[in-house]
Amino acid sequence: MTIAEERNDLSNEEGGHEHEHGGPRGIYLWLTSTDHKVIGKSYMYTALIFMLIAGAMAMLIRAQLTGPNNHIVSQQTYNELFTIHGSMMLYLFAGPFAFGGFANYILPLQIGAPDMAFPRLNALSYWLFVTGGITMLSGFFTSGGAAAFGWVSYAPLSSYSNAPGAGPDLWIVAIALTGFSGIFTAVNLITTAFYLRAPGLTMFRLPIFTWNMIVTGMLILIAFPILTAAMIMLYADRHFGAHFFTVSGGGSPVMWQNLFWFFGHPEVYILALPYFGIVSEVIPVFSRKPIFGYKGLVFATLAIAGLSTGVWAHHMFTTGTVLLPFFSALSLLIAVPTGVKVFTWIATMWGGDIEFKTPMLFVIGFLFTFVMGGVTGVMLAAPPIDFAVHDTYFVVAHFHQVLAGTAVFGGFSGFFYWYPKLTGRMYRESLGKLQFWMAFVGFSLTFFPQYLIGLRGMPRRVPVYLVSDHVTFLNQLSTVGAFLTGASFIVWLINMWISWKKPVAAGDNPWDGHTLEWATSSPPPHHNFVSLPPIRSARPLWDANHPEHADYKNQGHGSVPREREEQK
Amino acid sequence: MKVEYRIYMGIGIFVLLVTTVYFFWAKEYGGVTMLFGTAGLGIMPALYFGWWRKRMDPRPEDSETATLAESKGAIGAFPSNTIWPFVLGMGAFLSGLSLVFGEWTLVIGGALLIFAAASVTLESRRGGVI
Amino acid sequence: MSNFKSVRERRVGRKGLLLAFFAVVLSSCSSTFGGYRGATTQGQSEASLYQGFMITGIVVAGVTFLGLFYVLVRYRRRKGTNRIPSQRHSNLPVEVIYTVIPVLIVIGLFVFTVRSENKITQVSSNPNVSVDITAFQWGWRFTYSNGVSIVSQGANYPQLVLPANETTKVTLVSQDVVHGFYVPAFNFSRYALPGVTNYFDLTPTSTGTYVGRCSALCGLYHGEMLFSVRVVTPSQFQSWLTQQKAA
Q1: Residue B60 lies in a domain
Q2: Residue spans of chain A under pLDDT 50
Q3: Among candidates A105, A113, A116, which has minimal Cα distance to A198?
Q4: Which of A176, A372, A464, C155 is most exposed, with minimal Cβ within 10 Å?
Q5: What is the structure's pLDDT at C16?
Q6: How many CB atoms lie under 10 A from the CB of residue B102?
Q7: What would you measure as the largest C-alpha separation in chain A, in angstroms?
Q8: Rounded Cα–Cα distance for residues A1 and B25 (Å)
Q9: Banded model confidence at residue B54, pLDDT cuts 50, 70, 90
């Protein structure tokens, strides 16, 4: 196979495709590269910086809640903090970290492709993401402050009369920019996975991570246009005198909620599915087994995608304007494919040879928090229970366990798993484990008390509460947990620093990986592969390294012609 | 292309079923409109893939027995370094900011957008010398 | 011989565990799991649904975690070993079982959900009392059918007075942005939306005073948009109402 180089720059060709040799370096590389590996890494580190900023905001929020009547931040600042914390974590961290960072870096490698299908578009989506993030943060530097209407920006609280100033407009522009960035990335991911696969890598041999990214891309293409349209309508309401969401002009504020959540619920799966993909890669490798029930897992992912378009109004049970049994039934039903995934992961470990390296520990942390969040999610799918705890800390605890648990534990699992591939260096195992235990204990300590706080009736998004609510101690407990979680990221930074200053070479395939990204050098050369192993199953590299246990010798995912293989 | 076609068609038809149920049960037309559009977003790409599936040669990546040698010709054209996506991004950024700070940023942003869009197109046409 | 003994001991251990497990499940049937028992008939219906969901949740999560911990302990890599386990990657009966069982559980949960939901959302056509509640930034107005009206004034939280064991029909609207009428002790909340009128019934079962608050973010003083609900006997309620009317 050949790769046509568009650029006839000799320095690049003569470097013998050496990684980054002869090409631009430093800031100029960051600005000009269209290499999916450079863009993927930029995405990851930018998203992680956004996570640290939004995490610092969470610390301020938690500090404010240590007492019933604290004045650590003003009410206005508090509202701005939780709005931007949520918006950043969802739009700028959890999503882009996965589908901009991991998918960008890993997906072409996993399918044996030299790059993404549209490298320039890929670079453009990175710059839209960065500028979107800057736009969102710049709201804090305007005279009126940042947006303060929650990440859901319910109309008419987000109208011009209720939220004047530049902050809300900056928020809208930021969402639009990151929205376009997400759409471009999704187009790129799907096209890459459909058109640039290596010979023999059929769809049902794709790694589960790639499958999940395809489905995520499909969901992005369904959901993000609606979000962008809603943002345009909101902007028109604010500035052009439109009346989409104002009662006085014949509009409907509830329509905003419908539009927003029609984006918002697929968005939840856009954020979760990539991390499910990571987990589905890490578990088999550290159990030395193939994934259990491959096709079941793929169909569960597709089922989640299909169902997620029909559950949006379970965020609107208490509005009294939605068909309760319909949305309750579909929301309950979506628990089935999600449950199937969890059982699949446990079944994959069953009978395996489990090695508790840092990525695997993070996966176990993920499984624990995710099952807890999933069980409470099933409760919230029942309208009566939702009536009792809607917009309380019960819901806050639920979606943090599901979303933040997935993005942090799944995300760091993937980060440590692919860190050797990304950098060619090894992280320090002991510090990685320390980070996991701090994050896990801290995270559980933060969010388990919040279930009780919610059940006792403390609403979310309030900076003050009553002494008679009997939630002060629980809130303090939660804050201690939050700070412990925050400290775990300092351990991570130290780990990165040590690994940078005193590098330990990782080798090309430190984990005995199964998929093609481990078949190339660490970090991979320009255009990724010098040679590829023959692809005869979902685990081509495992087959090559363990021919006596190869998948094509077992009962395969499909019929496998052995004669041809032996010819090779 | 068969699997690609089927997953998109599957999602489209499933959402169409949900739309039908929702239409007759909820009688709420905002949701019906959005669901119908979503079904279209599944069926539309599916039709495209289905159309191509009939017209393209069987691809080695769809064959379970293909070898690496079977992929012929160039995989594609991949640029290595170009500044234009960055300039394009900055153009979009400044144009977006004009919604907040007034038209003056649109002048700079729009100019950058047009300039970068033209440059990136020309670059890819003539094989991309920066 | 020793082998035989260890197997027996293990069996006893398992039985003990099982018994302990059921003991926990049975004793939890009377617990509310941190929630309110519900001071209205509607709230009590929610409480029992929550209880059922919680017990199901404990069983499901318990089984999942037991499986997870068993796998993690039993199949951990022992030091110094380097074995390649069986590469089995599918087992259709197992996959069918772990798909069908959740479907059945979910169907069961749905049936109970719909029953409870119908009770809670039912609005009676001839209620004993009718109250119009209007939410605004940042307060409440409670207007009774005889014209008595109670409004938030400054830092004074308004009080909604309801008769016990009688059905009150609430008509809920919002004057400006989205608010949420939320009484934690009633296990109930409902959004007050501009342009939409919501109706619901409250049938308090015991007298007392409960805190109520706004649940949906409504701007700067969202956190201080409180009210209280005082449930009194029907006769006390009537005399309170006439007294207010006179005042």
Answers
A1: yes
A2: 1-2, 4-20, 556-568
A3: A113
A4: C155
A5: 64
A6: 9
A7: 78
A8: 55
A9: confident
C residues 123-162 closer than 8 Å to A (CB): none
Q: What is the pLDDT of residues C174-194, one digit of tens each?
A: 999 999 999 999 999 999 999
- CB contacts under 8 A, B 60-89 vs A, are 60-68, 70-71, 73-86, 88-89
CB A543, CB A533: distance < 8 Å: yes
Residue B130 lies in a domain: no
Q: What is the nearest CA distance from C110 to chain A, expressed in angstroms? A: 6
| CB-based contact C35:C47 (threshold 8 Å) | yes
CB contact A425 to C (< 8 Å): no
pTM, two decimals, is 0.91
Same-domain pairing of B60 and B101: no
- Asked if residue B93 and residue B61 are part of one domain, the reply reads no
Nearest 10 degrees: Cα torsion A152, A470, C57, C108: -70
Helix axes B2-26, B29-55, angle to 10 degrees: 160
Regarding whether B62 and B14 lie in a shared domain, the answer is yes
Domain A36-557 homologous superfamily, CATH: Cytochrome c oxidase-like, subunit I domain (1.20.210.10)
What is the torsion angle, in degrees rounded to the nearest 10, for the CA atoms of residue A528, residue A532, residue A537 and residue A541? Answer: -80
Specify burial of residue C178 (Cβ count, 10 A radius: 0-12, 13-18, 19+).
buried
Query: Is the pLDDT assigned to residue C26 strictly greater than 50?
Result: yes
CB atoms within 10 A of CB A57: 20
More confident residue, C4 or B8: B8
Structural domain containing residue B92:
84-125
Contact (Cβ atoms closer than 8 angstroms) between residue A100 and residue A218: no
